Amino acid sequence: MSMLRVAVAPLAVAVLLGGGSGAFAQDASQDQSVETLKVRVNVVQLFFNVKDKKGALIPDQTKDDFEIVEDGKPQTIKYFTAESNLPLTLGIMIDSSGSQMRVLDMEKEVGGAFLASILRDKDEAFVISFDVNVDLLQDFTNDVHRLKAALNKAKINTGGGGGSLPGLGGGPVPTASPRGTLLYDAVYLASHDELSHEVGRKAMILLTDGEDQGSQEHIKDAIEAAQKADTICYVLLIADRGFYGFGGYSGDSEMKKLAGETGGRVIEVGNKMEKLKDAFDQIAKELRSQYNIGYTPTNKDLDGSFRKIEIHSKQGYKIQSRTGYYAIAHEKE
Around Cβ 50, how many Cβ atoms within 10 Å? Predict the structure, then answer.
């Protein structure tokens, strides 16, 4: 997409799963080992959390504690494990639009501390900022210093020209298509051009007020891209409420859709440092307390349709998981 600016040279670590040519994956076509990294089409794998009624994580569950249903039809669980140490691929998405002016420094500090605490030897992360553009500040790396440096590069950008952009706290809504906060585009690009090329556990953490202005993609496109990339989306809803004035902000409902349908959740932070720290702690615990379940679907048609998945706990616990997957066949290079 033309609005994407790559702020650093992308590392040649992404591999294309289906012959796509995203702006973040320019060198991937040179990798001839692509086929060996593709997930088997006949196995569906899900990472999920199990919680009690108060939201506490439930450990020590076994395969026999669960039932799985696809489009209303029971499936046979073929694979099950509690994955606390499986390598993690993580995307940090930081909103640098005008509405974040008074909370951006807090996001950088706490986000950097989170990365330092959660990343282990085989884990990788990348950093994207989004405002009137979508910027890849750091491609996949395990180097916490480089990731922190990338976070610190994020600067408030309202596109210049003085005054507030529509959607960022003031001004009339013009008849043309404005560009203010390309949130949905950022999620789409991170999913399609970065995370879709990785295997294993994947998560995206968005630090934002949830307001989108000017994206070419819609929320449903962002959700679909994240689901196709098997990526969990967490949203830390960070809002300096004094910025919005009368009427407040309304980004939380769309963010709940994004998080809920991908197996993540929205955590309200406001503009409080301690709430942000606690939110990152919650995410870290959830990512290190996931179960991994796999099955071979009884419906073997790879027709591109969306299949709804439900995981049921026989003990009545709450399951936090993505809502389904797209039955897509691999395309040959």
Answer: 24
In a 10 Å sphere around its CB, with 0-12 CB exposed, 13-18 middle and 19+ buried, how is residue 282 labelled? Answer: middle
Report the C-alpha gap between 196 and 31 in whole angstroms.
15
Full-model pTM: 0.81
Q: What percent of the chain shows pLDDT beyond 70?
A: 77
Query: For residue range 285-311, what is the model confidence (pLDDT) as tens digits?
Result: 999 999 999 999 999 999 999 999 999
Q: What is the pLDDT of residues 62-82, one digit of tens each?
A: 999 999 999 999 999 999 999
User: Are the C-beta atoms of residues 293 and 46 closer than 8 Å to each other?
Assistant: yes
The token duo for 121 is: 């030897």
CATH assignment of 85-159+179-287, among 3.40.50.300, 3.40.50.410, 1.20.1560.10, 3.40.920.10: 3.40.50.410
Q: Are 148 and 115 in contact (CB under 8 A)?
A: yes
- State the pairing for strand pair 73-75/77-83: unpaired
Look up residue 291 and give its amino acid. Y
